[in-house]
Write a structure and sequence with these properties.
TIM Barrel, globular, 19% strand, 3 domains, 15 helices, alpha/beta, seven-stranded mixed β-sheet, three-stranded antiparallel β-sheet, 12 strands, 350 residues
């Protein structure tokens, strides 16, 4: 790998981590694999092949498994991506963020708009008919016209999926210590409203707060996550969530620093947290209500082990406020609830 982490040592650590995680799958085959977190496209095809072989051998794959690889436009090499496709990787997620050089520079990105377009072209040439483009809005100095131009440019690349989300200022970042001038709330609202109309007109259906896809091309990995499904986390800083047969639901996370993850005297597992019955309704709804069509009401009991009646009072409050659709068969935010999702979720805080 080109980021200072020895590839072979890291792959061997991943395989050892995988073997320890295997019992948590409880015999269930994998429905999706997502290589993410940084620049996994720096892995050699040989390394990714070793990992995929071990995953299939240990867990088994469903027939139509979705295998996604995250990549930044600057890491694209067409020959390498043909090799990735030959391994069975069948979906790419390309971190474009913007097609405008001044916005990319403000974000600290090393690629430019032309490289982003070439990346999409090379994805298709390498045999990827299914790929996502990641875009941000609410960027420093961004106008409505800038935001819509980015969307138009993205749709012109004909991705099957678009992730379009607002820039947030995270602690311990350069923007946190020196906040840039961001669009005001009125402009953000105009961008959101006009952008959603533009995406719908381009044939992209919104199925989650920040996710849009061509019909039938929703990301399986995303859907599992937002429906509070189980997932394993392998690698430095990875997170996982597993439901156990005895009713326990646990979140766990791995050692964050690669040097510690590679240290044979350091455990892979950094910590785990059981979700209490009081936590579970909020944890479930925090995910499920991001989906524009919500989820079947019966999924609440299936995923949490709790009776739907346990949230009846809070559910009625949310319906009375116009934030939740009064549908006995589904848990789904209203149009107002989608706009004020944090207010809706606050009602279910433990």
């Amino acid at each position: 790998m080109n980021d200072g982490v020895p590839e072979e040592a890291y792959v061997q650590a991943l395989l050892a981590d995988l073997a320890l995680e295997a019992p948590l799958a409880q015999g269930r085959p994998l429905q999706s694999v997502f290589f993410g977190g940084g620049t996994p496209s720096l892995f050699s095809p040989k390394a990714l092949g070793q990992i995929l072989e071990a995953l299939e051998r240990q867990f088994g794959f469903v027939a139509e498994i979705e295998i996604t690889l995250e990549a930044n436009p600057g890491t694209f090499e067409q020959a390498r991506f043909r090799d990735y496709r030959a391994l069975g990787i069948n979906r790419l997620s390309i971190g474009v963020q913007s097609f405008q050089s001044d916005k990319l520079k403000a974000l600290g990105r090393v690629h430019d708009g032309a490289e982003a377009i070439r990346a999409a072209d090379m994805a298709r040439a390498a045999g990827f008919s299914n790929f996502n483009l990641d875009l941000m809005h609410g960027l420093p100095g961004q106008s409505l016209e800038d935001a819509l131009s980015d969307l138009d440019m993205a749709m012109a690349q004909q991705p099957t999926h678009l992730s379009w989300y607002q820039l947030t200022i995270e602690p311990n970042t350069a923007f946190w210590s020196q906040p840039p001038e961001l669009p005001d709330d009125d402009r953000l609202w105009d961008i959101q409203e006009a952008g959603q109309q533009r995406l719908a007109a381009g044939g992209y259906q919104q199925y989650e707060t920040s996710a849009y896809s061509q019909p039938g091309r929703q990301a399986r990995h995303n859907l599992n996550y937002w429906t509070f499904g189980d997932f394993l986390g392998l690698g430095a800083g990875a997170h996982g969530k597993i439901s156990h047969a005895d009713g326990r639901v646990l979140r766990h996370w791995k050692t964050r620093a690669p040097k510690d993850y590679l240290n044979p005297d350091s455990p892979f597992l950094a910590g785990e947290k059981p979700l209490s019955p009081q936590d579970l309704p909020f944890e479930f709804l925090m995910n499920a209500l991001r989906l524009t069509e919500g989820v079947p009401a019966a999924l609440f009991t299936e995923r949490t082990g709790l009776e739907l009646a346990s949230i009846a009072r809070l559910r009625h409050q949310a319906e009375a406020k116009g934030l939740l659709v009064p549908d006995p068969q589904r848990l789904v935010a209203s149009a107002q609830g989608q706009l004020f999702l944090n207010d809706l979720l606050q009602l279910f805080l433990p």
